[in-house]
């Protein structure tokens, strides 16, 4: 049972009729009564009489929150024979027979931070096109398969969660509750399969779910395109204002998104746009920065540039970018540099391994990679020797704290060492790396989750950077390397933790959001081939598409690991689940 289509194009091909989308954006304050929202919607709509007479499909207006903006979306089906005439009336140049889409975007008006916090949950309102006051009574499950009713009568699952959430005290909400309760996790596999199967038979989900993803990707790519244009038009800063537009939080991450979008849709124009972005990132790069990791440092920018140049057939510039990565080796071997993935030596090792995967050939390649591996092993062993008694064979410090998570801790470093397993001796693998993996398992809470550090932290964090989701990737890879069943079992147990507690209140980002957690399910699907994990991926993806529930506004709203670019990347990547991979990991 495949709920995510493999190889389905992002943009559906045009058929016998042309489906058009008219987008109207408003900045309505969410706390206003529905009637006020409707009045504002009426004023924003201007549908020509010619268009009204030629519509041949049932009409809806979708009022929903996308990236903090209320969206009123009018969907119509227009016959090909009348498309050209309607295009002239509506001033839509893109409305042509067979194109599949036409659209108009009005000004994108994001809500203020204080308004975001007051978002109500009635954002999914379905109305008749020409009678906005007549709200349809049918819940969303009549349109989408993935809004399944379980123990909640006519209410959707996330409405049930909302009601439960209201019963909690403010202290619980703000200090202890970091995720929404997943009602589906309370069901046995057999019961869940029964519910899902019944819904599948009734609602034929594949096309609807794909359509839903496409809508979301399209809307967010439009927003990101605007941000890209602003970035490209900015004048070059003064020397003391140069920066590192990293993969993690900068525009290089959006270049990586564009590259993925271009590869999946065979859109060369997007590759060229990615080239413009990454070249601007390089032109304003702070040459004095000692940050060398893939996610937050200079090597990630250069590796992404090399990939883009290779895709465009510019081998000469691709080689120049590879040389720039290699020139960072002295910085990567500096004793003051931490060994962690996010902004340390393991992150630089990831860049070298990615270059090798891309076809980098050099007589000194293996020697350079081994140098970095040796430095990481040496520092991890040295840190452990200071412990009395010695508990692990490897341990790493960041800000004088022994972290355990993927971004800043032990599991992230182990992930990179396992990716580079051919550069380790059998002794190093079996007597250094393997015992460290075993020790990490002994630190788990009774819930099965992994602590964020060795400092007796409370069992709060279930996100890629800290906790079960990141560690799951490490143990799935460890099973592939060692073929030890306990690592497979550990990955499955960690997956169950993510399924139960991974609907985060922080938002939808890759680092500490729902889309990052959904990659944990894809890793298990790739390891086992079981549709159960693909289904879990689809459910978490649907949460991002449907609920609009994000309590915290990210610092970098458009970035890859914190903002809308990340969830957009995940939605594009997961449409080919066999090949999907968490970027930078």
TrEMBL record:
Sites where the protein binds Zn(2+): 465, 511-512
Name listed for the protein in its UniProt record: LanC-like protein 2
Alphabetical list of InterPro entries matching this protein: 6hp_glycosidase-like_sf, LANC-like, LanC-like_prot_euk
Keywords: Coiled coil, Metal-binding, Zinc
Keyword S-adenosyl-L-methionine annotated: no
Family to which this protein belongs: Belongs to the LanC-like protein family.
Record-linked Pfam families: LANC_like (PF05147)
Listed GO biological process terms: carbohydrate metabolic process; peptide modification
Record bears the keyword Zinc: yes
GO molecular function annotation: metal ion binding
CDD domains linked to this entry: euk_LANCL
Source organism of this protein record: Aphis glycines (Soybean aphid)
